[in-house]
Each structure stands twice: as structure tokens, then as C-alpha cells.
Amino acid sequence: MQSPGRGWILFATAGVLAAAADLLTKSWAFARLGMPGTGGRIGLVEGILDLETNLNEGALFGMGQGFGGFFAVVSAAALVGIGIMVARAADEAWLPLALGLIAGGIVGNLYDRLGLPGLHWHAPLERRGEPVFAVRDWIHFAIEGVIDWPIFNLADASLVVGAAMLMLLAVRKPDVGQHHG
């Protein structure tokens, strides 16, 4: 059996690293490329992968536009639930790691939803100058005629990887002799 503190360390390390990587790369992308629609774009892999900015007032894949406040409250509640789950599984390794990635992704996007980057809308005209309460996205994957994936960020990637890890953990065979209580 591992030390119960190990799970918390894995959780905190994954969460802090995921949130920091997300927030630093968003800041870089918006400083380098500007606000969406201002013409900034970097092509990394011709016809497949571009860096361009986008603002998402909804949730995953742009669903739920205009419900940013609701998603902020759900995010805060999810962080509380994740903390409870880590406390119950603090002697494990993979579960706290997966939950740390999810928490880091939540924190990165929640930071944006609360308007903390201090951005202001430049368009459309009726919104010009208003504070932005939207998630900053900057990675665009598309293959002409095959897929045009919604623009995303590293927080989204952390959420997906963490969720995939949870799914794998849910279907794994329990270790022989593992105590469930």
C-alpha cells in the first residue's frame, strides 16, 4: 500500500501542471496571434494543424453558447466533487492522476470563464469594449473534406485525457487481493 499523501501529490502536480501549461499557452497564443478574426494564424502542418485564436462562450465543442455562468458554477461544483474523490482514493496512483488532469483542465477554462484574462470584445460592434467571459482556444485541427475539429486548448486536451484515463480505470480488472471498502 502506498502512502495516502502520494495520491494528493500526484493529483496536485498533475492539476497545477495542466492548468499552468494551459494558461501560459493561451496567453502566448493571444499575445502572438491577437483576438479572433484579426488575421493572426500560424500553420504548423499544412492543411492539417493551425494555431489561431477563438473565443468560446459555451462548453465542449461550442455547445451551450451563452451559458458561461452556468458552466462556471458547474465547474466549481465539479472541483469540489473531484476533491472528495481524491480524498477517498488518495492511496491510489492512477485515479488521482486522472482527476488532477481533469481538475487542471477545469481550472484553466474556469479562469477564462470568470473573465480573468481581462480581454474585451473587439467585434461585433454591439459588444465592442465589453469584458470577455469566454474560454480562449487556439489549436485548430482540420483535414479538408474529412474533419474540421472545433478549435480547442490544452485545458480541453487535459480534460479529454483525464476522462479517457477514468474510462480505462473503470473497465480494468481489479488487482488480486485489492481491498474495496
Tally of helical runs: 4
Whole-number count of domains: 1
Question: What structural class is derived from the secondary structure elements?
Answer: alpha+beta
- The overall pLDDT, averaged over residues, is 89
**Total beta-strand segments:** 4
**Rg computed from alpha carbons, rounded to a whole number of angstroms:** 18 Å
Assign a percent range to the helix content. 40-55%
Distance between the termini: 14 Å
Strand content: 5-15%
Kindly report the spatial arrangement of strands forming the biggest sheet. 1-2-3-4
Which residues form runs of ≥5 with pLDDT under 50?
Answer: none
Outline the biggest β-sheet. 4 strands, antiparallel
Could you spell the SSE succession in H and E letters?
HEEHHEEH
Shape label: globular
Structure characterization notes:
By secondary structure, this protein is α+β, with helices and mostly antiparallel strands. The chain has one domain (4-171). It has helices at residues 4-33, 68-88, 94-113, 154-171, and strands at residues 42-45, 49-56, 135-143, 147-148. It has a four-stranded antiparallel beta sheet with strand order 1-2-3-4. Helix 1 packs parallel to helix 3 (94-113), helix 2 packs antiparallel against helix 3 and helix 3 packs antiparallel against helix 4 (154-171). It is globular.
List the helices and strands and how they pair.
Elements: H1 4-33, E1 42-45, E2 49-56, H2 68-88, H3 94-113, E3 135-143, E4 147-148, H4 154-171
Antiparallel strand pairs: 1-2, 2-3, 3-4
Helix pairs in contact: 1-3, 2-3, 3-4
